[in-house]
Design goal:
455 residues; alpha/beta; Rossmann fold; Hypothetical protein af1432; 5-stranded parallel β-sheet
């Protein structure tokens, strides 16, 4: 028995489609207009259930369905689930319909599935484990779909998120797929993210780490390693880190990513090359700037002749970690406490506190990493300090900021200027504006190197 979803809102139609397919095993046809729905009915004669909104695109479609049903026996008639804010009363068109039931738009997915359930006998054999019935955002981890495709088929369930308290399992235990089928299905869904249960992430993390290590050991890297893959890695690993903590498996993924980032930038990265291939995604600021930051920080360190492997590792790892506690993109873009105070109406009290404490939180998180170069926590702790002592969390002046802390701060300032939407980035203007701030110590030395690195 085939199903047609005739709903004009694309996102609602897709979410309901995922739910219907997951629960019934039938992939519904979809239409966003009455014309498209009528064409689907003509093209697919096996459609016997139409799920349609009311009011909306329903009137013309309903009259067409009534016309079709006049020529059909009862068993072949098209039955309709009407989606409405409240049950329509005394509608003469609806009175002529073969109505399967009314689905409340307030609880669209649950009410629609309840109406469909009795008409699909195989659904009754598909029991949902008790552990899956009440999944919420707290129980799951968001994974970039591109990374799930890279690591291949998992034994764990893969879920689609419909709401903070509603998840539908896309792949069930016991489903049999070849790897290429798995990739095809994920690509067909066109979803940027899918979800794993927190307690079922180990297999993904192990496969993920091994995939990164293969790239690290490769003679040449694919062109899409920077920035697409590195941004996907940062986003997903940050999610896992916040949900699972600094587990041994996550540490291995972080270390592999650091090695991959250093390999991607090459032995002698040039600022002009980095900026020349830069693609800024301001909507994904946290990951996008965290991928650009180590490239610039390492370039500046090399210009200062601080180019040992441990130095590059420190700067790259600090860049990866420094904003991992954030999930609010707008909050992560805030440069300082003055800007935060001016924009405090945009954020909750909890977010304001999170911003003020994030250098301490992320530096403490970095201390949990095993077998990495020392002082990474110091670089992270100092990344919002300023040469004149006006920064936070400790108000350190230039003479008390570590050398690599200075490199990181200058690189961070550069990245902030690059992401500034109010004006185009010009390196010469950045240098001129920083002359009055970078007046002493390593800040002044770095400014001199920036002059030499003109595009």
């Amino acid at each position: 028995m085939q199903i047609l979803l005739a709903l004009h809102h694309t996102e609602i139609r897709e979410m309901l489609g995922f739910s219907v397919e997951s629960r019934t095993g039938v992939k519904p046809f979809e239409a966003g207009t009455a014309k498209a729905a009528i064409q689907s009915l003509a093209d697919h004669g096996a459609i016997r259930i139409v799920i349609c909104e009311y009011p909306g695109i329903s009137d013309v479609l309903f009259r067409h369905i009534i016309s079709l049903n006049r020529t059909r026996e009862d068993k072949d008639q098209i039955r309709t689930i009407v989606c409405a804010a409240k049950k329509p009363e005394d509608d003469p068109v609806l009175q002529k319909m073969n109505i399967l039931g009314f689905a409340s738009t307030a609880k669209l997915i649950d009410s629609t599935l309840n109406l469909l359930f009795p008409h699909f006998t195989d659904v009754n054999s598909r029991t949902t484990p008790d552990s899956d019935k009440q999944l919420t955002d707290d129980d799951t981890c968001r994974i970039k779909t591109t990374l799930l495709i890279r690591v291949g088929l998992l034994q764990a369930g893969v879920y689609i998120r419909l709401s903070p308290t509603k998840y539908v399992k896309m792949f069930r235990e016991g489903d049999q797929f070849e790897s290429n089928d798995y990739q095809r299905i994920l690509n067909e869904k066109s979803l940027e993210h899918l979800f794993l249960r927190k307690d079922e992430c180990s297999e993904f993390l192990n496969k993920f780490k091994n995939d990164l290590l293969v790239l690290v050991q490769a003679e040449t890297l694919p062109e899409n390693v920077y920035p697409e893959l590195l941004e996907a890695i940062h986003e997903t690993t940050s999610e896992l880190l916040n949900k699972l903590g600094m587990t041994a498996e996550i540490q291995e993924v972080i270390k592999a990513n650091v090695s991959l980032t250093i390999k991607a930038m090459g032995k002698s990265p040039k600022l002009s090359d980095i900026l020349g291939k830069l693609e800024i995604d301001r909507d994904k600021y946290i990951s996008s700037h965290s991928v650009l930051l180590p490239q610039i920080a390492c370039t500046l360190a090399i210009a200062m002749d601080w180019k040992s492997e441990p130095t590059l590792q420190k700067l790259t790892l600090a860049a990866f970690m420094h904003d991992t506690v954030f999930t609010n993109q707008a909050l992560a873009k805030v440069d300082n406490l003055t800007e935060l105070a001016n924009r405090k109406a945009e954020f909750t009290e909890e977010e304001l506190k999170q911003y003020k404490t994030h250098p301490v939180k992320t530096s403490e998180l970095a201390k949990q990493l095993q077998e990495v170069p020392p002082d990474i926590d110091t670089i992270i702790l100092q990344h919002h300090e300023r040469p004149n002592g006006s920064g936070f969390p400790r108000g350190l002046a230039y003479q008390h900021i570590s050398p690599l802390g200075v490199v990181f701060i200058v690189a961070h300032d550069l990245v902030s200027a690059l992401f500034d939407q109010t004006r185009p980035f010009v390196l010469e203007r950045f240098i001129e504006e920083k002359k009055s701030e970078y007046v002493s110590g390593n800040f002044k030395k770095l400014l001199g190197h920036l002059v030499a690195l003109k595009l």
